[in-house]
């Protein structure tokens, strides 16, 4: 059976009071009055501090030195902006591989026409062109000339000049450039050369009908000494016509070696017109 406790003396009472004060308020007193000088160096260990309890206000200014920081543990974001100096520029890297070609862009607008450049040097003379082309031909012949199919009547030359002479052989040509040859055989012989000798100067023209291109030939024919009773006259000319047209031959006679023409009129016993087409033609008249 329990029995009541009874204090033995006043000292025991004082000791009990001190004990309860120490238990109830001793820790608050210690926290408010203990400073760094009251703690022995290296007395407080990591295991004496609850994790996460040391805050920024608990650290004195300039209290953490380089020796307290783990090497390589601080990062760029741990420093205030502008505190870390910029390092030297590093060497250039190797050139990267060429990229793939890009897609072709849209065609741009056509630019303005530039100024005409200077004329280039004249080229060398080209090879001679081939003059061969179409041949156009027409003729007439008489029994006096001879040959198969020669049955035409001789053409008597009676006109005193070119204006009054008529074309006795004509031919049509298409537009183009041509080399034209007109050939005429003329005879002048009298049935009685001793009494009434023939003596004439005959002129013939191969030409375009109307104004244009022409070629001429002439000769004296007759019975007098030094004259021939028969001769061939050849007239040649070149022409370029932009449209189709006609060419022809006509002849006239004037006085021969005498002061005036005499005896029977000269006659044409053969005539021919031939036109060879050429690619182009350049005419140059000489006096």
Q: Layout of SSEs?
A:
Elements: H1 10-33, E1 135-141, E2 155-156, E3 169-173, E4 176-187, E5 199-208, E6 214-222, E7 230-241, E8 245-255, E9 267-278
Antiparallel strand pairs: 1-9, 2-9, 3-8, 4-7, 4-9, 5-6, 5-8
Amino-to-carboxy terminus distance: 180 Å
Mean pLDDT: 81
Helix content: under 10%
| Number of helical segments with 4 or more residues | 1
Structural class: mainly beta
The top level CATH class name of the domain at 135-278? Mainly Beta
Main β-sheet: number of strands, strand sense, barrel status? 5 strands, antiparallel
CATH architecture title of the domain at 135-278: Sandwich
SSE order in H/E notation? HEEEEEEEEE
Low-confidence stretches: 1-11, 26-31
What is CATH's topology name of the domain at 135-278? Answer: Jelly Rolls
Number of strands: 9
Strand content: 25-35%
From the spread of the alpha carbons, the general shape counts as rod-shaped
Structural summary, described in words:
The chain has a domain at about 135-280: Jelly Rolls. About 10% of the residues lie in helices and about 30% in strands. The chain is built from one helix and nine strands, in the order H-E-E-E-E-E-E-E-E-E. The strands form two sheets. Strands 1, 2, 4, 7 and 9 form a five-stranded antiparallel sheet that branches. Strand 5 and strand 6 (about 215-220) form a beta hairpin.
Summarize the structure.
The protein has one helix and nine strands; from the N terminus they run H-E-E-E-E-E-E-E-E-E. It has 287 residues and is mainly beta. It has a domain at 135-278: Jelly Rolls (Sandwich), CATH 2.60.120.
